[in-house]
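User: What would this chain look like folded?
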Amino acid sequence: MVNRKELDPESSPMAAFGERLRTLRDEHGWTQDELSERMGYSATHISAVETGRRPPTRRFSAKADQILGTGDRLERQSQAVRHTSLLEGFPEYVGHEAKAAEIRLYEVGVIPGLLQTPEYAACLAESAVKRGAITPEQGEERIALVARRQASLARTPFPLVFAVLDESCLRRPIGGSAIMDAQFARLVEFAEMPNTALQVAPFGMGERRPFNLPIYVLTLANRSLMSYAESTQRGQLERETAFVLPMLTAYHQLQAEALSQAATVAMIQELRKGTP
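Assistant: Here's the prediction, encoded as structure tokens.
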């Protein structure tokens, strides 16, 4: 075909999706115009997705699956494209988190996604979009991902969730006093749940703090362990028990040094007095 752009599916998740969509369209013997008529999207839109110039939304991918008869293959593949704003390993971690029997997390600087209010999550995503760090579509996916992660906690049996927040998570204002007050209220509600524990690692811990960056440790239903740790530029998913156990031990040390849940709630309530 004249002027047909060649794609390298190994170059990015977006290119891989575009190549898959083009191949499926070719297998049906359809032109971009013909697929456009069936899907209800312009041929220009389809061309942009096929050539990796436009990311596929969930709605677009689901429609393509329906028209091309591919089950949910394209919708599942599109998740990798939409998650490109997330650190390596995190989308896979989220899948395991949704089935874990116990979740342990430590966060620095911001309230962790599992505990965020929708307004707090939206404020973070909108800020990232304004900075040009992510696209508006990726911002929407981040907010949706927070909601899906939180919804996955409402399963039977409930997972045990242990959260230790660096004091900076509480001290850093996000979105103004109203959003912070609602977020503080959410943290208090979380602490009152029967399957949760909330603690703050105060600044006074100093060098006794075993972690400087966010970490997550999962205990799966079969009692195997898995961890996920983040640096500024990348994330690392670890499945080898020999490497996860030292992190679990350090987490227990963190909990021993952190404020009790009662003292944590008291700190949050004191901070709330400073918000209207």
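Strands lie at 102-107, 160-166, 196-201, 215-219, 225-230, 235-238. If you want, I can go into more detail on any region.
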